[in-house]
Amino acid sequence: MNVPETQLALLEAASATDEKTVAQLADELGEDPAAITRAAFELEEAGLVAVDERVAEDVTLTEEGRRYRESGLPELRLRAAALDAGADEDPVEMGQLIGEAELDGPEVDIALSNFARKGYGSIDGGTVTLSAEPRHDPDADPERGALDAVADEGAVSPADGVLDRLESRGLIERAETTVRSVTLTDDGVTALMEGVEAAETVSAVTPELLTSGEWESVEFTEYNVEAEAETVNGGKEHILRQTANRVKDVLVGMGFQEMEGPHADADFWINDCLFMPQDHPARTHWDRFALDVPPMEELPADLVERVESAHRDGVGSEGDGYHSPWSEDFARAVALRGHTTSLSMRYLSGHAVGELEPPQRYFSVEKVYRNDTLDPTHLLEFFQIEGWVMAEELSVRDLMGTFTEFYEQFGITDLEFKPHYNPYTEPSFELFGKHPETDELIEIGNSGIFREEVLSPLGVDCDVMAWGLALERLLMLMYGFEDIRDVHGTLCDLDLLRNVEVVY
Ligand code: PHE
């Protein structure tokens, strides 16, 4: 019988009476464990070995666990210092012991609470007294012993309560691994007795094999596509980026063109053009990330004049302004944009791509920055899906219809609309969608039809409906996660990011 080399080595190393683990065999044969696993499965299929699988617990020390193994558990150091200072006779000042035990920062609390828990003594009025009858012998502290056992042996029986304690103290980490062991079957023994030889196996057909005719006699390596393989987590596109790209595709499919523009922009484009009074709360330093850079010089003078006039006197014969201060200096000051409606202003004014004639549809999927308080649904930056439609005649029905069509592409069909107020749109609507896990209605966007006070200075004399939707909230509805920090930043849910697919 001929088998590939690794299989032969494995057959010869395996025993009919003693199980050997893949790790042991790999070690013995100087082979890669993955290669041994593969060979074992192939031999199992040929009936020559039996492969037994067991789930085992892999226990390792954390960085803190390793540190305490070196320096001693904080409570044991406290106890040793107390013993040295004679606390078995009389109470000793805690401050003195902390210094002598070289306890630092959080170690102090760790020492005190575990010292008390283990009954090593009592802590009263800032002094420590050692107990004559501790719950167990401090020289044979079970947690200390378990730290050693974990470090020396790697694996310890999982039922051990001491391990639970070490785990809750953050001193060890446990992970499940599959341990495979191999034994020779009767057929394996028979085959070995009859004689097994190594077959050259070839993993690819080469021109040489073909021209020499050798391909007819060589043995090709077989692939076992069913064998369990190690998980390889390669790099992949973040689901936020995947979804952003999908949003772009959907909007392009609906006839929209993409807008581009600066993340740091003049307040003029971010707020003044939107008829946001300069004393509006959103424009204070509480909400806005002001930048310490020179003011923006290049603003269209005639537009600045018309915007100022809208703020001061309103638009049209019936118009009324804000009667609040308006300064060009503030308009030119540069900040991180709090919404991408700044881009809509640049495009609608003709400043970005020249005068636009209706009908037009534009969008962007870009970052915006807000000085919010961090919580499960708010970050300091997020992606906004900005969009607008310019046409002779638009109504709220057009707005609702557009959203319905857009969100349907993502499987979201139960939108709700709530009347809202924006200084720049009338009417205005907030959009809500139902969270698939909690059934809670969550706000997913804000929208409306631009007011005369916005459009007239921009020189637009037809209707424009517009919106800003949160990309992260769309993701929440699609994937059911509840905390935006699952997809952003250092607390993100790696399993979610690795395994979720954005399906078309
Ligand atoms: N700028 C608004 C926001 O950030 C969204 C919006 C854009 C609303 C355009 C109406 C019109 O919430």
Distinctive features:
single chain, 504 residues, alpha+beta, seven-stranded mixed β-sheet, three-stranded antiparallel β-sheet, 19 strands, flat, binds phenylalanine
Question: What is the distance, rounded to the nearest whole angstrom, between the alpha carbons of the first and last residues?
Answer: 51 Å
Coarse shape: flat
Query: What are the segments in which pLDDT stays under 50 over at least 5 consecutive residues?
Result: none
Q: Total number of β-strand segments?
A: 19
Helix content range: 25-40%
How many strands, which pairing sense, and closed or not: the largest β-sheet? 7 strands, mixed
What's the arrangement of strands in the largest beta sheet?
A: 11-14-15-19-18-17-16
Strand content: 15-25%
Gyration radius over CA: 35 Å
- SS field, number of helical segments: 20
- Give the helix/strand class: alpha+beta
**Average pLDDT, all residues:** 91
Bound molecules: phenylalanine
Structure, explained:
The protein has 504 residues and is of the alpha+beta class. Helices cover 37% and strands 22% of the residues. The two termini are 51 Å apart. The mean pLDDT is 91. It is built from 20 helices and 19 strands. Strands 11-14-15-19-18-17-16 form a seven-stranded mixed β-sheet, with helices on both faces. Strands 2-7-3 form a three-stranded antiparallel β-sheet. It has a three-stranded antiparallel β-sheet with strand order 4-6-5.
